Amino acid sequence: MAATAHATQVVAARKAASMIRGGGFVRSFEFKQRLRICNAYPHDASLDIYHDGKSLTGDVPMSYKQCRDFGTPLREGDKLDFKNADSMVGTFAISELPSSDAILLLIIYQHDAQTTAASFKSHVFAATSSAQVAVVDVHKGKTQAIAKIVDSAPSGNGTISEELRFDSVVAVNPGRFDIRLESKDGKVLATRELVVVNRESYTIIRTGVESETGKSYPDDLIIYPRTSPGALKSGAESRFVGMAAMVASVLASVAALA
User: Residue 254 pLDDT more than 60?
Assistant: First the structure.
């Protein structure tokens, strides 16, 4: 991608709507689809987002490390413009949409440590009965790090943790956990709580930038949505029983994160 302040990318999934023809009538299926945008673009100014020229964020622009759901209907060919103090940051164009109920995740982040150019990653969460967690790394810089999921209510065997592979989607049992971002030498860079309930789609994002030309932003984690611990049913908090039972891969990976 060219190092410019205006980035354009296109997401391709599957066709948006199926048509049924019969008796001379044409009817389109209506799918429940939500647009979920996460602002991982490190900047002191918030982002204004426009859908085909109409403001999505209104009087409340999205600050850095904030995510938000939008119920606005989307169509093939629609464009989402991201502006920062009236300056264009990036444009995301939608070529196709899934033919199912889904959450459409879109992450805006800084393309590299040398410029302020923006880039995007996207993923489609299909509706499932279990919880899905997308783990994404958009940090820019030389620091290497790993993410771990830690049982925040350990059993008599002590605290148990598992590494979460970046750019993957995993299934996690309901429960209350800590997500830790650690450097290669074991230093904890950030910790955030993750409360998991079934049928929800979660996103964990490593963000930050070690800028070579401007302001740097430290390593941090974005977790969305933030479920209340009160949403857990009695006895639903799970313990680690090994990677196969606790964290199982469900979608081929987010090489799909375009």
Answer: no
